[in-house]
Design brief:
Order of helices and strands: HHHH
Radius of gyration: 14 Å
Helix content: over 70%
Distance between the termini: 8 Å
Strand content: under 5%
Largest sheet: none
Number of helices: 4
Low-confidence stretches: none
Number of strands: 0
């Protein structure tokens, strides 16, 4: 793995943690004010993940796994937005969890 990618991974994973926490708050909060605040933080987290993810995409050696992980990340953002906006179904939840699980496995074992 490229040393530049190693340096940039902590910000990428910290941003992902912020997105996960704000997604849970935005999706499950009954308080409209907290939901709106968490949704705003979610957008900030998306931006940070996109920036650090693009950096990793261009610093890691290209492989099909890096491409799959990148496309999966974009799909996760779309599915999370659908759920937060109230348009998520059981199928969307299943796809979200499956995509996240595959992405984590690829990141941990193959990249």
């Amino acid at each position: 793995m490229n040393s530049f990618a190693l340096i940039n991974q902590p910000p990428h994973f910290i941003s992902a943690l912020v997105v996960i926490v704000s997604f849970i708050l935005a999706a499950f909060s009954g308080n409209a004010g907290l939901k709106k605040f968490a949704h705003g933080i979610l957008y900030l987290g998306y931006a940070l993940i996109l920036i650090s993810g693009c950096y990793l995409l261009f610093t890691l050696p290209f492989s099909i796994f890096v491409l799959i992980k990148s496309v999966g990340g974009v799909c996760l953002v779309v599915m999370a937005e659908m759920i937060v906006r109230g348009k998520g179904s059981g199928l969307i939840w299943t796809l979200l969890l499956l995509t996240a699980t595959v992405g984590l496995a690829i990141a941990y074992f193959l990249i």
